Structures are given as C-alpha cells and as structure tokens.
TrEMBL record:
InterPro entries: P53_induced, PMP22/EMP/MP20/Claudin. Pfam families: PMP22_Claudin (PF00822). The chain crosses the membrane at residues 12-32, 77-98, 110-131, 151-172. One of its GO terms (biological process) is cell-cell adhesion. Its main location: other. It comes from the Eukaryota. It is a multi-pass membrane protein. GO terms for cellular component: cytoplasm; desmosome; plasma membrane. The keyword Nucleotide-binding does not apply. Belongs to the TMEM47 family. It is found in: Cell junction, Desmosome; Cell membrane; Cytoplasm. Keywords: Apoptosis, Cell adhesion, Cell junction, Cell membrane, Cytoplasm, Membrane, Transmembrane, Transmembrane helix. This is p53 apoptosis effector related to PMP-22.
Length: 196
C-alpha cells in the first residue's frame, strides 16, 4: 500500500504536473476565440485576445479587426504572454529541481516567487482586457466573457496555488526527503478504558 501525504518524496511530481496543466490552460486561452461571445443567438460577436469579430445576423463571414491597433490590446496581450513565458520557464525549472536526487529547497522557493510574478502579469492582462474592451469596442447585443477567458483565469488560479506550495515546500524539508521517523501514539489501557 502506498501512502502519500501532502509533502512526500513520491508525490514530488504533482506540482510540476499542475504547472503543466496551467500551461495547457494558458495555451487554450491564448489561442481560443472565446474571450467574448454573444450570449444567445443570433451570434453576431466574438473576440479573442488578439482580435474582435462581428457579423450581421444573416451573414456567414466574420468581419474582424485587430486589437493590436489599441494600446490596451497590446498591453493585455503582452502582459498575459509574458506571464505565460515565465510560466513555461518555471515548469522547466520545476522539472529540473524535482529530477535531481538532492532537492535544493531554496531553488524551489525561488520558483514559487517566480510563479507569483506570473500570476501578477496574468491578472493584469485579464483585468485590462474586459475593462478596456467594453469601453472602446462597440458591443452588439448581449455578450458574455466566455470559455477562453475562463481558461485564462483558471490557469492563473492554478499558478497562485502552485506558488504557495512551492514557497511553503521547504518548511517540510525533512518529511519530503524522508529524514523523519513516523510518530506512533499509544495509550495504555489505564488511560483509555474505552479500548477494552
């Protein structure tokens, strides 16, 4: 039977796995066209991080304009993209850190610090986008921030959680490395009559 607590050496790959999941969600957010969509039919508006598209209800083709023509569009894309690149670097560093036999805990804490930087960049991009989009782009009908935007926030939430774990992991250094013996608690029958 394998017992695996929060901080054990056998479970060291959970944190890099979570970072990999955050990268996948970040890729979906960067590539997805569902940052903003029409809430109900006829679907006349959709937007990604990079462009905004509209069409008339009876048309088949979308008319798209680049959001990179706006300063806020470039800022939102740049901050989210910089956060994503740092996230990929943190993933590579985490794989290296957990691959070596002697884990360098200060190195792990540094990865946690970088993940907080990633979260800050991504949050800035995710806040700039809806605020400025609704101010500068003419919205047609009822719209909602949709699935790709949600994947951006999901990636950010996973990054924040991993950042806390990476920063706190050195506090459990002995448990992670297996340098501590388990503690067994035993009560004598005189002190615990209910055990008889």
């Amino acid at each position: 039977m394998v017992v695996c607590g929060l901080a054990c050496w056998r479970c060291r790959w959970l944190l890099p796995l979570l970072l990999g999941l955050a990268i996948i969600m970040g890729i979906i957010a960067l590539a997805g066209r569902g940052w903003l969509e029409s809430e109900s039919g006829p679907y006349v508006q959709q937007a990604s991080l990079w462009e905004s598209c509209t069409r008339t209800p009876d048309a088949l083709n979308w008319n798209c304009e680049s959001l990179m023509d706006y300063g806020w569009g470039r800022a939102a894309a740049a901050t989210y993209l910089v956060g994503f690149v740092i996230l990929v670097i943190c993933f590579a560093l985490a794989v290296i850190a957990f691959s070596i036999e002697i884990l360098r805990f200060n190195f792990v804490r540094g990865i946690g610090g970088l993940l907080f930087v990633v979260a800050a960049f991504q949050i800035i991009g995710l806040v700039i986008y809806p605020v400025k989009f609704t101010e500068d782009i003419l919205l047609i009908g009822d719209n909602m921030f949709s699935w790709a935007y949600g994947f951006g926030w999901a990636s950010t939430v996973v990054v924040i959680g991993c950042a806390f774990f990476f920063c706190c992991l050195p506090n459990w250094e002995d448990e992670v490395l297996g340098n501590i013996k388990p503690t067994y608690y035993y009560s004598s029958p005189e002190r615990a009559p209910y055990l008889n």
